[in-house]
Amino acid sequence: MNPSAGDVVVLVTMLGWVLIAATGGSIAASTAEQAAFDDGNVDVDVDVDDPNPAFAVQADPDETNTSDRHLNPDEYRESGNLGELETQLTSWLVEQLREGAAELAEGEHETAHERVDEQYEERLEQYVEIASETAGEHHGGAFEAAGTEQARLTTAVSEYETAKADYDAALENGDQRYAHDLARELDTLAGEIENASLRLHEQYDDLEAGTEVDLSAADTAIEAVVDDVRTDQREIRDVQFVETELTIASEAGSDQISFRDPLETSGTLRTVDGEPIANETIRFEIGPQNETVHTETAADGSFDLTYRPTAVPLSTTELVVRYVPEPGSPHLETETSVDVTVSAVEPTVTIRERPDEVALGDEMTVSGTLAVGDVPVDGVSLVVTLDDQPLETVDVSNGSFEESMLVPVSVESGEQDLAVSLSFDDQNRALSETAAVEPTTVLETESELLMRATRTDNETVLVEGWLGLAVGESEGVADQPVEIHLENATAETVWTGEDGTFESSVAIPHSADGGDRRVRASYAGTDANLAPARAETTAPATDTAGVTPGSVIQSIPFWAWIGAGLLVTVAIVLGGRRYRQSDADADSPFSGRDGEGVTTGGEPEQPSLESPPSSSSSAPSASASASASTAPSPAHIRARLEEATDHLSDGAPDATVECCYEAVRWDLETRIDHESEGSQTHWEFYRRYRDHPVSDLEELDTLRTITDAYERAVFDRRGNTTSDAERVLEHARHVCSVEIEDSDRDQLAAE
User: Fold this and answer.
1) Where are stretches of biased composition, namely Low complexity (predicted)?
2) DSSP 531
3) What totals of helices (H) and strands (E) does the chain contain, helices first?
4) Is 650 exposed, middle or buried (0-12, 13-18, 19+ CB in 10 A)?
5) How far apart are CA 181 and CA 175, in angstroms?
6) pLDDT (tens digit per residue) in 489-537
7) Which of 207, 227, 498, 709 is the most buried (most CB within 10 A)?
8) Among 559, 489, 500, 458, CA closest to 697
9) Span 405-437, pLDDT tens digits
């Protein structure tokens, strides 16, 4: 007995009911769970220490997890126990400091650093938030400073231990030069450790006084660490270095100083044993900004010193003068102080070179001088601004400066002020604030905005795009706002990334139908020198109904797959017999074949490129080209573009668009395996090209524009305008990158 087509239909129907029964319960359960989750009726407890939790379970309401990393302040607000939470957070922060200090003393540097890492900062933020809502005074500043100093101390100690191990190895290997260099590095680290420990002790004292906690154990542990460093460094200094003494003469009337009237004094530099450091170029760091001055010593270690203050605060009454040995020197640094009174003077900035006109991305060079009278200023920094936008900080060397910088997009177009200024955090310095200003014209740069929109489901449109320059190398522009509009409503504003790209998922209103969605992106160019730009596209309708195929497949029980497999096996056997019968019937002269004038039934398809309703009767048919074993030649593509040009001249914009679309599609098909997909509608081809690795955003946007125009030409009785056709022809020439050649005409004539 041969099974009929009805038998196959019955079996396939049974298969469908099995799968529906299996998935229906899963989907319903999933929907119920999601609703409960949205209502807040399901608590999910995930182990925060497991980076890949296998599943989530409902939390036990009676279980208390004292190590929870995510305390919820709102729960404590509702219960009125903010004070209790503040106490818990205080205890936790103090315990982190205690444990970190103990671990540092034990040499557990990595663990000690983890005590004051991001988790400490998160809990500190919670503490400040809660403590600001309670009646008492909070100590967030002290906790922050203590955590910062403890982290800094831990890092310095870790670096010291590493360098100390390298130093011991260098001595053992007989590498005295390397050992000496490491000894200098160790001496610097030892100083950092000493200073950090002093600041940390102060923070501990503040916390103990304000919170009544006991940090004595942490104090003791830190002091033990510093004592070990002091002991090691004392031994290293005895082996590697010689201590020095610095004296500076105090002369009557020399304490009144300014940049115009500098400190002029003399002194001597010797070892502690009285041996002069003779005939050397020595370096001093002077004042709180460690301004550098070089001078020469004589045979007896004496020297003359001239110092012109620049950034010294006017409130300074004592200048520290520090001798800093050069790398490789056997001497240790030493310092002394000089009593002074500082007066301010105003320098003069002069701009000597600057551009008259600039545009976005241009490299502009600015140079000039800084001086007080005829005396050049050295060792300070100036700020270059354009339209009050900081461009660069330039260093002044011997009274001169020169720097090249790029023009950012944030500078408005038009005539703007280019300024070079000297300024400090406060104005009370030895050099007063000053500036030079010159006019510079900022040109507006043409922009380009590309965009594509894809329906991910019935509720969301994925918008991707790029904002950049329309000229040159088409560089992307970062940190610019782009407004996304869905239909006629503004959906949201996104900001471009470093390469000018942007991406956003836009929600579709629940009241909207499931049809195509018009998406528009706009860049206003406000407060910038980049011209405004717009892009518009359509997100085609999708058949997705909100449940992803993956989620449905995963929800099917195992028993359903077994039953479905049995039914599929039977259906294949019966279907195979039926297929062999139908294959035999295919030889009948009454059987329908696609493309031969006999329909096979069903809904009529959209016309595809293989059978376009072209208005050009003389054009070679697209179906012939598509069915050929080889891709259309460049000559065919060029000829189709030439034909499009003729149609445009004849005032036939739709025919122009159709020829352009065929040329572009032929060209793109050669890049993505033109024989692989058979007959496709224009939107099916668009999606195939979009999903192919060779596609790029710019060409995809161009294909979208041309496809839109092709659809209007074929299906919309209003058609395209002449300007539409001109734009499509320009896009097509750009994509195909071809020009009409005489050899093409000869080749086509021969064919």
Assistant:
1) 611-634
2) P
3) 17, 27
4) exposed
5) 10
6) 767 899 999 999 999 988 887 655 667 778 999 999 999 999 999 998 8
7) 709
8) 500
9) 999 999 999 999 999 999 887 768 999 999 999
